[in-house]
């Protein structure tokens, strides 16, 4: 994934640096990441994670990520606290980088629908040792 940031011009991978991902590019490439963790916040302020594979759907004049969450805790949390995050672990194509996405959620039946507001390829963890 090649990305650019709004303040830095074209971005290149620099070891140890994260790279902002333009949202149109996120939608074009999200299927390459497979599953990710949808993070919501529970009533007791604890993070709730649910491993899901999103689907990109057209929602009016914008594109969104739809997660089949099963109507449980993730849906209840998103209704009460709609700011959510998603973390996609490193994939074969990502040079060890994870994809992190922030967004605003709504609930549609048993699904959580997320309008991404920001995305970044997060640098790999430093080597142990």
Outline of this structure?
This protein is mainly beta.
Q: Going by CATH, what is the homologous superfamily?
A: Electron Transport, Fmn-binding Protein, Chain A
CATH class: Mainly Beta
Strand content: over 45%
| Assembly state | single chain
Number of helices: 2
Main structural class: mainly beta
Low-confidence stretches: 1-13
- Provide the CATH architecture: Roll
**DSSP helix fraction:** 10-25%
Order of helices and strands: EEEHEEEEHEEE
Q: State the separation between the terminal residues, measured CA to CA.
A: 29 Å
Can you offer a commentary on this structure?
By secondary structure, the chain is mainly beta. The protein has a single domain, classed as Roll (Pnp Oxidase, Chain A). The chain is built from two helices and ten strands. It has helices spanning 23-29, 73-80; strands at residues 4-5, 9-10, 19-20, 36-41, 47-52, 55-59, 62-68, 83-88, 98-108, 111-122. Strands 3, 4, 5, 6, 7, 8, 9 and 10 form an eight-stranded antiparallel β-sheet that branches. Strand 9 and strand 10 (111-122) form a beta hairpin. The radius of gyration is 15 Å and the shape is globular. Residues 1-13 have low confidence and may be disordered.
